[in-house]
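User: Continuing from earlier, I have the next pair ready.

Assistant: Great, send them over.

User: Here they are, in order.

Assistant: Folding the first of the pair now:
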Amino acid sequence: MKQRIVAFFNLLHIGMVYLSKFMMVAMVLITFVNVVLRYGFDSGLIWSEEVSLLLDVWFIFVAMSLGVKQDLHINLSLIAEHRMTERIDRVLTIIRGLIYLVIGLAMLVYGWKLTALTMSSIMPATKWPAGLLYGILPISAIVIIYEAFADLFHFETRDVAVDRYLSGEGTLKDVTGAADVRP
């Protein structure tokens, strides 16, 4: 069961990397086209600001959850590495995992409430529910919570296999662990 959960989140991680790439390209293209239309032809896309904002918000929260997996968030070095004992390092790692867990739980609870609350509001240009803007919060929170648990309980998450796959060198079987299963 744990292996399936790890495989699911590894596939989700890969999907989120590709989604973030798509969102960044789409945001740049929409903004570029709107600038060309506005300054070159005195017109523009009335929906471009809302869609760019939606892509930006989603990109930020996807990147936040990916940053937890890759340990890319800002860290403060309060103790010089040469003075850090293994025990202190482990305690600080546990504290970091607990902080990630609390942040993830807060994002899940309040993100869910915010999304539900704003689903009845409509964005003026696109006529989309405003809750779409915040719908990524609970999804990102679930990934952060999983990564916090994986870090706290030392799950074998196959991060190297995920990185190899994203660089074009690995396979999905390596990512999901299907290569390890013998009939």
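And the other member of the pair:
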Amino acid sequence: MINKIISNKINNVFKNNKGFSIVEMLIVVLIIAIIAGVISVVYINSVKSQKDLLNKAGAEINIRTALYTITKEIREASGFSIAASNQIKFSADINNDSTVEDVEYVLTGSNNNFTLNKKINNGNNIFILSNITNNDIFSYYKDSSGSALQTPLSSQDLLSFKLIKINFTVNKEPSNPSKAVNFSTVVSLRNR
């Protein structure tokens, strides 16, 4: 008798249990897919933003290092032989060994994609910075209140200028101008 009662109860439970229809299951799957899609888009965008931020920070570090090095060496210059908007050549003791070296910075490339290299005593090119979009990185001034001198400087202006403005615009994605990073500094010559 107890077995019969338990058997009837179990049968009643399974007969009254309706479950989910296929339409309800499809709606749940669709909602989960939409939520997963939104989460993945947010995740992908955050990863892309982080990558862009790291690239920009890396470019800024490279520019700051280049500006620091060039500024330090130009301040110690004892004479200039070339002063153009994309090239500068001077004499200086850049490694403090009491020997004056000929130092040349020259911009090479085209189509808003330039590379800055350095030569010491007409030796091999030493890479300084790439992805430069402007080809006029050097400007020369006789004083802080005047306008820039016309480049390349004449032999007379090579002896009289006192300030150099260095300006870099770097962009690893030249097709996207909003990703450009710009830094500039003004160097006051010590040995003038």
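Worth noting for the second one:
The mean pLDDT is 88. Strands lie at 79-83, 87-92, 101-110, 113-120, 126-132, 138-141, 163-170, 181-188.
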